[in-house]
Write a structure and sequence with these properties.
The protein is of the alpha/beta class. 41% of the residues lie in helices and 15% in strands. Helix 7 crosses helix 9 and helix 11 runs antiparallel to helix 12.
Length: 246
């Protein structure tokens, strides 16, 4: 890690220390967490997905594929993610992946970097999943895809001194590029080892998430606490902590 990153570590955790009682619940890092990234839009549909399972600091599974568009792909979007109608016309539609994503949600919370986009996109295809554990309220059930663990919101709260919170900015500031590249070399298609490729971005988010587990104070949080910190809305955060939301 860079010296700058360690400075942020020392400064940022202080306001949260001791705010919530850990009790006897297990650390969030023991729980499988499925980091998801989608390329596409509500107009074009989901054009590519990447999903990475993280548990105990290790990437235990990763999957990606291209998906047939359900609408027009704008040229300005192609310039960002590199996907176009010609490339994707023969791909199977994303809608065929319900069993896969419902299976992920059954075993752990979903995660994304600024998760609002991923939540909107998955709900545009399937408004609800199957009955699954509500990881914000142990013992309860839910058919919602969320609440999501959101690394964008987590880094904004735990490291408020940072100037930028994009995936590439945080990976660079944390000195995590070599770690990300090693994982991308093992899991990503050779022509999709870059930002704005779904699995690469999902791996980047997973690297940021497991970096939090190296901070002793953050590593002790429970899954419900991490989900609560994943919202920037104070009222929703308090409701999650009280088990009264979702």
């Amino acid at each position: 890690m860079s010296a700058t990153w360690h400075t942020f570590r020392r400064l940022a955790w202080t306001p949260f220390a001791g705010k919530y009682s850990l009790g006897r619940s297990m650390s969030w890092s023991e729980q499988p967490i499925h980091f998801v990234d989608f390329e596409g839009s509500l107009g074009s549909g989901i054009l590519e997905f990447g999903a990475v399972t993280l548990q105990r600091g290790e990437v235990t599974a990763a999957r990606t594929r291209l998906c047939r568009p359900t609408g027009r792909i704008r040229s300005e979007d192609t310039a960002v993610h590199g996907l176009d109608q010609t490339t994707l016309h023969a791909a199977a539609p994303f809608a065929e992946e319900f069993d896969y994503f419902a299976g992920l949600r059954a075993t752990g919370p979903l995660a994304a970097h600024f998760a609002g986009a991923e939540n909107s996109l998955i709900k545009s295809v399937w408004p609800y999943g199957r009955a699954a554990p509500d990881f914000a309220r142990p013992g309860a059930g839910s058919q919602e895809w969320g609440p999501w663990i959101d690394t964008g919101a987590l880094y904004r709260q735990f490291y408020p001194q940072f100037l930028g919170y994009g995936l590439s900015e945080l990976i660079a500031a944390g000195g995590l590029h070599a770690e990300l590249e090693a994982l991308a070399g093992r899991h990503c298609p050779e022509d999709r080892r870059r930002y704005h490729a779904a699995l690469y971005d999902a791996l980047a988010g997973a690297v940021l998430l497991r970096s939090l587990a190296r901070e002793p104070g953050l590593a002790q949080l429970t899954v419900p606490q991490l989900l609560a910190f994943s919202t920037l809305d104070g009222g929703k955060r308090d409701a999650l902590q009280q088990g009264s939301l979702f």
